[in-house]
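SEQUENCE AND FOLD
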Amino acid sequence: MRQPQITQDHIDQILNEKLPLMHWELQLGIGVVYENAPLNVKYKKPYLEYGQNLWKAFEYDLFNIICNKDSNSPKEWITDLVTGDIRNAIIGVAAVITSKYDVSMGIAIPVTALIIKTGILKYCSGTPKKPKKTVNEILDKLLNRKVGKKGKKKRKNSQT
């Protein structure tokens, strides 16, 4: 499990009102492509498309973790984070993402930004549409993760 290391620069970027949602979808696509890439390798991929598809899957999957389906409101733990310092909410959401999906900040920061920029109340106000693929199915494909014995995921060419 990776420990989130969120810097003040990450927080400033997430809170920057000039960066639209599409910026974070693009960053998510870039993050997933370069998650396990060797140093100094450059790709030409449909980053925005990857990011948008992955965001739809995260949006659906994280809804059940962050939101109370019955009341269409944030769960108590996220409400506690949001009513305090926004930095704590950002760190809390990023920690959930890194631990649940075993991904780096290159993926966790854009997803956290998309949730924060959407607004927790708005995010929880309606159940997202179920995507064609789950987060793990998309990550398994894009990150070349294989499911080994006992259901544990293994990464090809992992640089850990």
The CA atoms of residues 44 and 62 lie 29 Å apart. The radius of gyration is 15 Å.
